[in-house]
Structure formats: C-alpha cells, structure tokens
Amino acid sequence: MENKISRRTLVQASLLAAAAIPGLGVIRSAHADALPPLDPNDPTAKSLGFVTDPTKVDNAANPTHKATQKCGVCAQYQGKPGDARGGCNIFVGKSVPQGGWCKVWAQKPGA
Ligand code: SF4
How far is 69 from 62, CA to CA, in rounded Å? Predict the structure, then answer.
C-alpha cells in the first residue's frame, strides 16, 4: 500500500494550520504599514465610495455618513491607534489611511 502525501495536500494543511494560530494575526497587523495604499480609483473602492479624505464624502448619496466615521475607528481597520495607515479586512492586501472612509464603515467596538 502506498501512503504518499501530495505537495498540494501538504501546502493546504500548512495553510490551515497557520490560519488556526491566532498569533499570526498580530504578524499580519505588524506588516500593515508595508501594504501598498488603496487606490480610490480601484473599481471595488469606487463602488464602496472609498475616499482618503472624509470631507470628500458625497453626503447626499451617503446620508448616514458622519464626520466622526473614519477608518481608524472602523471595525474592519487593522492598524493600531496612532498609525497613519493600516490594513483593512475589506481591501485585503492594501492599506487605508486612518482618516479614510467607505460605505462599509462600522464602529469598532470600544473605539
Ligand atoms: S471598511 Fe472601514 S477601514 Fe476599510 S476602507 Fe471602509 S471605512 Fe475604512
């Protein structure tokens, strides 16, 4: 009987194991500053109304928008308090400014 493990199976198992280690999230956050900035002209960013400057939000199209709603206090923001930029769970692989905003904004618990 042959009992070989394919390279694909090994890689998949490694990725699942890595995902199960909570500490890796800290490493991901630590590297958020190295992420390239999200381009406001990115099609997904545009569709979600992303802006780097919240004074540019179209309040007529976004009537629930408030000046206090910024990436830095959004539940999706990965940066730490005081960081100029941070990762975002919605725009994976990109960084957003702490003062940015998009339609997905939701209050970060405790912020
Ligand atoms: S989801 Fe939150 S952190 Fe991400 S761009 Fe939108 S407002 Fe900013």
Answer: 12
Q: pLDDT digit of tens for each residue in the chain (111 aa)? A: 444 544 443 333 333 334 334 444 444 544 555 899 999 999 999 999 999 998 989 889 999 999 999 999 999 999 999 999 999 999 999 999 999 999 999 999 987
d(CA 8, CA 21): 20
Whether the Cβ atoms of residue 26 and residue 82 lie closer than 8 Å to each other: no
Strand partners, 101: 51
Atom of ligand 1 nearest to the CA of 91: 4
Contacts for 38-41 with beta carbons within 8 Å, 24 or more apart?
Answer: 38/88, 38/91, 38/94, 38/95, 38/96, 38/100, 39/94
Best residue among 101, 103, 107, 108 to mutate for probing ligand 1's pocket (most ligand atoms within 8 Å of CB) is: 101
